[in-house]
From TrEMBL:
InterPro entries found in the cross-reference section: MFS (IPR011701), MFS_dom (IPR020846), MFS_Na/Anion_cotransporter (IPR050382), MFS_trans_sf (IPR036259)
Matches recorded under SUPFAM superfamilies: MFS general substrate transporter
Protein's UniProt keywords contain Ribonucleoprotein: no
Top-rank lineage group of the source organism: Bacteria
Record membrane topology: Multi-pass membrane protein
Any matching Pfam family: MFS_1
Protein's gene: exuT_3
Annotated GO CC locations: membrane
Gene Ontology molecular-function annotations: hexuronate transmembrane transporter activity
Protein name per the record: Hexuronate transporter
Organism encoding this protein: Dyadobacter helix
Keyword Acetylation: no
Length: 426
């Protein structure tokens, strides 16, 4: 009698989902408190962009080594280190007293949060066959959106009752609760007694060679491979757009449509809820096409082209006359970004063996953070220039045009470096 396959891999996805939710909850708090902190500390748009850049620079620096370290020490310990560092950093924001100290706290937060996606993508590659990886990635990646949905409700409520310091303290403490469950329930499939032989055989059904006992790939060697550059440019050109959505959307709605950020914001909740649908739906679509017999590379690239096109209507935001029209256009773009993100992360595990996945994701994440350093400089300059001229709305319109073309350009560059996304032999 054949034993029914266990489904423990989906519990692993649940752990990754909640970690990513906490990751983005801690990241989003600053953007929601921006008007309050600008008033208290007298920040300009450029001051705020410098604080954002401190996070991005530390995030990029940390990713240089975090991916490689995780390939050496493993997913379980790697996540523990990452969450401990970023949760402590989130708590310490409550004690910042100016631009410099906020910049330092954001830098420490970036050092810790850099571990989230390299670990999560590697854990997904360890626990899922290729045909399920995009869906699994979409599910845990949607945690970014849930964190962004919870924050506009939770943070204004805490702000109104207790003040901005408590907003950082309460949200920062959540990561330590998650750590208990990660330590208790995560192991590699071969070491996890809750997963039976049938499930382990299913996970290994791609017949990928077992590289767990091999020496990790030398980090610099990966730069000689075209597929690495496809992933690097795909992340560099699109990650900064998501950072803009996280850090500047609240103030955009406040400045363009007089949204009161001291109260829970249903408009922001709708935008970030749409991204959850995009993340899971984007992961499902490419998996659906693969199950229909499409080659993996064609399913991924067709899906990503569709999502790139879906971002472009955000350029019409300049013609909106009320907040709900803007909410619809921005929700579509943000959802398309997360659908794109679910698939671009999966391309790393499609093209590289498991022993190199975290390193490649770390390199790509670093590239995305470099873009995330440069783009806030441009955003701060544009918004301060147009604010001085008395027309900050025109500044946001110019930024939306840049956002609209970024994904199509990224898709073209990725196609140039990896037309068929061939599996790398290392």
């Amino acid at each position: 009698m054949q034993t029914e396959m266990t489904r423990y891999r989906w519990r692993v996805v649940a752990l990754l989902f909640f970690a990513t939710t906490i990751n983005y909850l801690d990241r989003q708090v600053l953007g929601l408190l921006k008007p309050t902190l600008e008033t208290e500390f007298g920040w300009t748009e450029s001051d705020f962009s410098h604080i954002v850049m401190a996070f991005q620079a530390a995030y990029a620096f940390s990713l240089i080594g975090f991916g490689a370290i995780i390939d050496r020490i493993g997913t379980k310990l790697g996540y523990i280190i990452s969450v401990v560092v970023w949760s402590i950093a989130a708590l310490l924001h409550a004690f910042a007293n100016g631009t410099m100290s906020f910049g330092l706290m954001r830098a420490l937060l970036g050092l810790g949060e850099a571990g989230n996606f390299p670990v999560a993508i590697k854990a997904t590659a360890e626990w899922f066959p290729k045909k399920e990886r995009a869906l699994a990635t979409g599910i845990f990646n949607s945690g970014a959106n849930i964190g962004a949905v919870v924050a506009p409700i939770m943070v204004p409520w805490i702000l109104g009752l207790y003040g901005w310091e408590q907003a950082f303290l309460i949200t920062g403490a959540v990561g330590f609760i998650w750590l208990f469950f990660w330590i208790k329930y995560y192991e590699l499939p071969a070491r996890q007694p809750r997963a039976n032989e049938a499930e382990i055989n299913y996970i290994l059904s791609d017949n990928e060679p077992d590289t767990s006992k091999e020496k990790p790939v030398k980090w610099l060697e990966l730069f000689k491979i075209r597929q690495t550059w496809a992933f690097v440019f795909g992340k560099m050109l699109t990650d900064p757009i998501w950072w803009f959505f996280l850090y500047w959307l609240p103030s955009y709605f406040a400045e363009a449509f007089k949204l009161n950020l001291s109260k829970p914001s249903i408009e922001l909740v709708i935008v970030y809820t749409a991204t959850t649908i995009g993340s899971i739906g984007g992961g499902y679509l490419s998996g659906f096409l693969i199950n229909k017999g499409w080659p993996v590379f064609r399913a991924r690239k067709t899906s990503m082209l569709l999502f790139a096109v879906c971002v472009m209507p955000i350029m019409l935001a300049q013609y909106t006359t009320n907040i709900w029209q803007a909410v619809v256009l921005i929700s579509l773009a943000a959802a398309a970004h997360q659908a794109w993100s679910a698939n671009i992360f999966t391309t790393a595990s499609d093209m590289f063996p498991k022993k190199a996945v975290s390193s490649v994701v770390g390199i790509g994440g670093m590239a995305g953070s470099v873009g995330g350093i440069l783009f806030p400089m441009l955003v701060g300059y544009i918004l301060d220039t147009y604010k001085f001229a008395g027309n900050i709305g025109a500044g946001y319109n110019l930024i939306f045009i840049i956002c609209g073309f970024a994904y199509l350009l990224a898709w073209i560059v990725m196609h140039f470096f990896a037309p068929k996304m061939e599996q790398v032999k290392i």
